[in-house]
Amino acid sequence: MTMQPAIIFKIVAAVTLACSPGPSLSAEALQEIKIGYTSQSISAFPIEFARRKGFFRAEGLDVLMIVMRTNIIMNALLTRGIDYGTPTTSVIRGAASDLPVKAVAVLTGRPDYFLAAKKEFKTVKDLKGKRIAIGSFGAAADLVLRTVLQQEGLDPERDVVRLQMGGGDSRFAALVAGTVDATILNFPFNLQAGTLGFNVLLWLGEGVEMPLSGVGARDETIQKNPGQLIGLLRAIHRAVVSAKANPDDAVQAFMQWTRVDRELATKSYELGTKSWPDNLVIADAAVKAVVDQVRAELKLKGPIPLDKVRDWSFAEKVTSK
Description:
The chain is α/β, with parallel strands linked by helices. It has helices at 5-19, 45-52, 55-58, 70-78, 88-96, 140-151, 168-177, 189-195, 219-224, 226-245, 247-258, 262-275, 284-298, 313-319, and strands spanning 31-37, 61-67, 84-85, 101-108, 114-117, 131-134, 161-164, 182-185, 199-203, 213-218. α2 (45-52) crosses α11 (247-258). The radius of gyration is 24 Å and the shape is globular.
């Protein structure tokens, strides 16, 4: 008996389905989430490394990373233009000011800033009465500088002149031109300053903890989509563990992502391993320092509970053994 073409097609289709591998996470099955971050730097690298290694896809997530300025990230987060943002200091400041956001994880627990000065200055105390360039008042670099100055016995309001100079390139140019005596720099400007004969006095993260970058989320996401948050942080934690255990792989990935040379990539990686918290959280004292700064700026009365600005429960769940 001759079989009809339609019957043959159905049999072949059934055999094909029976022999095909089990279900996989297709692009349609993945849940797309958008993360705003400020620059391709070591502070955001754990997210990029998780994306490259497929850790997000393993959690059913399709992560889109979008470079934005900090203020735009905060606006986009509040208006649902993005799902998460990395400038944790700004998220904590916003939450302390009654915005419906919280920090849920920390990626960089120590600032990636360096204090560079003219070659005649050998210590931080030598900067008394001198001009120091910062980005803007109240920003992360300014908060760290104030803390370091106080640790060295200097009053940041009276003993030095802090000048707002914008981004790292502008601050570096001001130092080279002699407009300021010292400035806060990060990679690669701190290396360039050393090459030109300026003194890089210290890495500001040596003695200061600060939630420089991490994961900030809307309160509604925390309340309504905890599963997504767990998957996101579990993938990021895997990336941190993998990057620390596989330096060659991590350095190569960082070079490809940022298009920097191996020397800078290696130095950035070394700084990252000192700054990425293994448990994705930071001490409450570091969070409180940011909150207290907001209270002082806004002249708020009464304490601000830390539970208002951070929720470490998700990070603790994915990192607990």
